[in-house]
Every structure is written in C-alpha cells, then in structure tokens.
Amino acid sequence: MTTPSEPEDRASLEAARWLVALEDAPDDTEIRTRIDAWRAASPQNEAAWLDTCAVYDLMAGMAPQHRPLRDDRVASPATHARPARHWRRAAIGAAAALAACILIVVGPGLLLRIQADQWTSTAEVRSIGLDDGSVVRMAPDSAVDVAYETGRRRVRLLRGEAFFEVRPDPARPFVVEARGVQTAVLGTSFNVRASADGAEIAVRSGLVRVDGAAARPPVTLRLQPGEWAQVARSGVVARGRMPADEVAPWLVGQLVARDRPMAEVIDDLRRYFPGSIVIVDTNLAARHVTGVYNLADPVGALRAIVGAHGGSVRLVSPWLLLVL
Question: Which of 109, 163, 302, 320 would bridge 137 by S-S if both were Cys, CB 3.0 to 4.6 A apart?
C-alpha cells in the first residue's frame, strides 16, 4: 500500500473543515467561492475534496449533495430548530473528520474497493471481458465500476488508466466516465487516463465523442485515430496527434513521454514502483521530458529520466526513492 504524503494528509483535513463549513452555511456564496479557490490551488486539494465527500456520503447515507461545487447541485438543507441544527452540525463535523482520518490512515484504496467492481495493484495489468464481448485492459493502480443498463453500456474509471476494445452495438452506446468527462462510442478502441484535474483520451481506432459536461464551460470534442485530448475540470482543453499504434504504450511495457513535465512522468512511474517516489528538487519536477522508458524496470527508468537533466536518484530503501 502506498502511504499518503504529508501534503495529502493536510489536504484531507482541510477538505473536512471546508465540508463542515459548507454544511453549516450552504447558501454562503463566499464560502463556495473560497472552496472553489482552494480546490483549484492544487491537484491534491481537488482529489482530497472529491474523496472526502465520497467517503462522507457513504458513511452518512445521504444523497450526493457534496459533489463538486462546480456542478451547482448543492442542495439547501431543510429548516431546523436551533438544537436540531446544532446536533446536525456536530454529527456532520464528526463524520467529515472521520472520513478524513480514514483517507489518511488507510489511503484511498478503501474507498475504491467499496466503489469498484475491479481494481489492480502496483505493477499489475489485468484484462477483463465484459458481458457484451468488449474488453477492458486495466493499467496498474487502477479501478473501474461497470454498470450496464437498458440502452447504454457504462463504465466508470475511478482511478488510473484503462484501454477499451468495444464490441459494436448501435442500440447501446458504450460510455466511459472519468473525472466528469464522458467518452461515448459504438465500436472502437481507445485509452482513458484519469487525473486529479480531469481526464485524457487517446484513440487507436474508430471515432469517439468526448463530453466534459462538468467543465466550465462545457466541452464537446470528436476524436479520430491517433488523436488525443486532455480535458480539465476548468474547461481547458489540450489536443494533439500521435501514431495510432502508439496509443497506450503501457500495454507493451513502455512509458512514452513527449515534452511532458517530469512530475507527470514520475506520477506514471509510481504505479509500477511498490513504494514512494519523492521529488526533493522541485526545479527538476518542472523540466520537460521526452523519451521511451522500460516500465519493467521503474528504478532504471527513473534514473534515465532524471539523469538526462543532471539529477540523481537515491535508493533509501526498497520502498523509498528520492529524486535529487
């Protein structure tokens, strides 16, 4: 299990405090604005908010009124007498604090195992055959929830990355949801990667429609083979092209980076290393990386990535790597 870092611990506790403040004053626009600003300040804050709200909803058995504020779906509580409201606030505070503690002590793995139908651990790649003949290939440290309904096939990518090979069925579109972004197809193959800030979709074959309804403003895109797009919750979109056969290189044990920040590339490597990778030199984190690396040797890959920019990697223990 990956131990949460100190920034993640702090973000989880702050998320619990904001949740209590919102419940105490759900119509206070200033609080909502401050929460939005706090969430936008870092990917850790955004992830902590979503995880804490989800754990609290499960614990409290309430409707998902604590979902992202940008959805504008926060319900106003019913009017209560003062003693009842005081008790409700205390209960909410205790539940939110407990939710944050659960996230800190056992990490997000507990929440994922409650929500997910299938998940993978560090360095594990798994193929799942679905009822309609479609196949989901899950990358390490990933989780999916499958929900087939009349008229629609739906898969939620809760964490990580997955490659989808979809069996055509015009009567039932296939929809993948990840971080508020929906990818809809009839029959195609494509890769989806969830991040703290949104989702990235890359198409190997066929045509997909990408909808970021939760983004502000909403986003709708169409992608063809070899095209990729990153859709952030803020509505910011980045697009590009690559050889179609290079979509999802992790399927063949490779990490391909094209002018990506080193911090993002190292995040991908973390799914293959059974421990923690800590970037001590923050200047290195912002350097851009281009290259092809072997995922079967994450330590060697990390040394190649960092060494090209004058940095070094120190193996403190089999479970801790420092980037210096």
Answer: 163
Tell me the backbone φ, ψ of residue 214, rounded to 5 degrees. Answer: -80, -15
Q: State the residue for tokens 């803020």.
A: 234
pLDDT of residue 283: 87
Q: Per-block average pLDDT, block size 10, for the chain (324 residues)?
A: 50 76 78 87 79 62 40 35 44 54 51 76 93 95 90 91 94 92 92 88 95 80 94 86 93 92 92 89 90 95 93 86 89
What CA–CA distances, in Å, run from 176 to 162, 169, 183, 220, 287? 10, 15, 5, 14, 32
Phi, psi of 276 (to 5 degrees): -115, 140
Q: Is residue 47 part of a domain?
A: yes
Same structural domain, 129 and 186: yes
pTM of the model: 0.68
Give the whole-angstrom CA distance, residue 221 versus residue 190. Answer: 14
With respect to residue 281, please indicate whether it lies within any of the assigned structural domains.
Answer: yes
In the structure encoding, which two tokens stand for residue 211, read together?
């909808």
One domain, residues 235 and 257: no
Closest CA to 235 of 257, 208, 216, 221: 216
Instruction: Using the CB atoms, write b or e for 95-134: b if 16+ within 10 Å.
Output: bbbebbebbbeebbbebbeebbebbbeeeebeebebeeeb
